[in-house]
Amino acid sequence: MRERTGDTVVVIGAGMGGISAAILLAAQGLKVQMIEAAAAPGGKMRRVTAGGHAFDAGPTVLTMKWVFDEILAHCGTSLAEEIPLTRSDVIARHYWRNGERLDLFADVAESRRAIADFAGAREAQGFQRFADDSARIYHLLERSFIDAARPNPLSLSARIGLNRPHALMALKPFATLWSALSDYFADPRLSQLFGRYATYCGSSPFLSPATLMLVAHVEQAGVWTIEGGMHALARRLMDIACDFGVEIHYGERVSSILSDGSGRKVAGVLTDRERCIAADSVLYNGDVAALGPLLGRPAAAERRSPRSLSALVTCGLERPLGVPLAHHTVFFSDDYRAEFYDIFDKVRPPRDPTVYLCAQDRLASGARSVGQDERAPERLYCLMNMPADGDSHAPAESEIEQCLSSMRHRLEKNGLTISLDRAMLDVTTPESFDRLYPGSGGALYGVASHGWMASFQRPGARGPLKGLYLAGGSVHPGPGVPMAALSGKIAAQRLIADRASNGRSRLAAITGGMRMRSAIADLSP
């Protein structure tokens, strides 16, 4: 069945990049059709059920709220107007062997006092310098790299200012995150804590550039919890897109991206329902590793760099005993270097994993949510990092149980006891993630950010065919919920600018009679 669509833009995938792009394109009057293989929006912001309760089973935290406010401003609204959210006072709680504990706070001064009590005045002074430098790096890159079309090293230098060599060197591009942390901290526990920021983009702190220090400032600028969880955010944004006329087709997978007779320009898509949708613009929101087969090319052509981390994720009801939990709690391993050696060098589950735990019925501080019975079991989400080998290795049940045992042992050494009973858990493995996100091998962040050139090697917004655009965590500016949203914004900007250059731009009234507050210039780079 062939559908003629005129000015239709087809968006493949209703992850955060696709939804953000769809909102902006529809708000500009373009007809948008979204094709999503899953039964609900959100991509990795997914929901699972265990023990009769719903769990967020993907990202558990929202940062860079300004990204969503800027996108929604084009719709005449803001994030706070659309969904209840609360700023967290405690960013995360951290435990080491024997229950040694450190809380990080949204307030830098409060974190400094906590670090002084935990590790001494010298380490607290180092933290202050670290916080100042992370803020400096973030502000240098916010508009020149993060919220901008993908640069190369020379164009990034030009954006920052070739006459500002000190600013360029402040980015610490040639140092690894782990080596840079030694300039601030003598206590290995603090290096471990702040080195963990590399895992936010699926990478090793021993191989990632020190530029990732900027994550510290991102968190200090605001960590938010969403009422109903992160999946509720995806659903609300999808509702806004639909209010602007976006058509969403769930449970349907695109099997091919079609090109015209020249083979150089997009002509539409073919789905697994044998629907052929003609379109001169297609926006692909998925892992770029899966793009080649959609274009009739081998998948290997898209793999140029090592894959990022995968994970083993459990969701289940528990009655935790021992050390008190916050909403976000991290239980660190004894040997961080060995953990990443296992994952990236030996391509095996770490024998002693760091465990991240999200207590989804607790507030940021650790108190149970209003109305929660303190005696009732609570929803716990646990994650250990894993190699992204989901397309080549299907774990046996014994291997999964070994991972659960490793997690239990680490939690117990750090002061927490939970059952992690396989029969009561929803468990997602790298193989599961590969099935959910084809072509990824289970990698959750695209390629690993190893080496100073890694950030420049992610694809930009334009795809290999004219009229094909890319969004999602595997393209510029990188992984994470707000970064994926920015990728969708950048792709929408590029698509609109390209249409304008071809004389095909237009303005339109918004559904319901509300007039667009902005013209194409507001969305152009």
Description:
- The chain is an alpha/beta fold and 525 residues long.
- Helix content is 34%, strand content 19%.
- It is built from 18 helices and 23 strands.
- The strands form six sheets. The protein has a seven-stranded mixed beta sheet with strand order 9-8-18-19-20-16-22.
- Strand 8 (90-95) and strand 9 (101-105) form a beta hairpin.
- The longest helix is centred in the first third of the chain and has 26 residues, at 121-146.
- The protein is globular.
- 50% of the residues are buried.
Strand content: 15-25%
- Provide the spatial order of strands within the biggest beta sheet: 9-8-18-19-20-16-22
Mind telling me the C-alpha Rg? 23 Å
Mean pLDDT: 92
Q: Using the alpha-carbon principal axes, give the shape.
A: globular
- Are there runs of 5+ residues with pLDDT below 50, and where? 506-525
Quaternary status = single chain
Number of helices: 18
Question: What does the main sheet amount to?
Answer: 7 strands, mixed
Helix-and-strand structural type: alpha/beta
The termini sit apart by 37 Å
Give the % helix.
25-40%
DSSP E strands, number: 23
